[in-house]
Amino acid sequence: ADAAAATATMEYAAMTTDAAAGEKVFALCRSCHVLEDGVNRVGPSLYKVVGRKSGSVAGFSYSDANKASGVTWTTDVLFKYLEDPKAFMPGTKMAFPGIKNAQDRANLVAYLDSQSK
User: Fold this and answer.
1) Distance separating alpha carbons of residues 46 and 49, to the nearest angstrom
2) Cα(33)–Cα(47) distance, rounded to whole angstroms?
3) Band of the pLDDT at 105, cuts 50, 70, 90?
């Protein structure tokens, strides 16, 4: 897992990102997530998600896998997670299959990062 995480870090760091393009990719997330503080839907609020500990949004019923993961949602971690959530975090309740296109994923992470300041 460490090698995969290191590879993901290098991949994201090497990407040229476009947060405006990432906002369009976020449309894939809107059926379950919003960016408003304290607003949980099928998924937890993604308000200031970058830098947050997984499983920490008040009032959301997380999977045990998510609560126990010890993950902090850095841009590098999000880039890897969003490729294949169930492979990254076995037992997650997130049914989303992931975003295989690295550029779309990097743009989405850049958008989430821009919204987390």
Assistant:
1) 5
2) 9
3) very high
* Cβ partners under 8 Å of residue 67, min gap 6: 54, 55
Q: How confident is the model at residue 22 (pLDDT cuts 50, 70, 90)?
A: very high
d(CA 51, CA 13): 16
Whole-structure pTM value: 0.90
Identify the helix (H) or strand (E) that includes residue 32.
Answer: none
d(CA 15, CA 68): 30
- Tell how far CA 51 is from the center of its chain: 11
Tokens of 84: 């294949």
Helix (H) or strand (E) segment spanning residue 93:
none
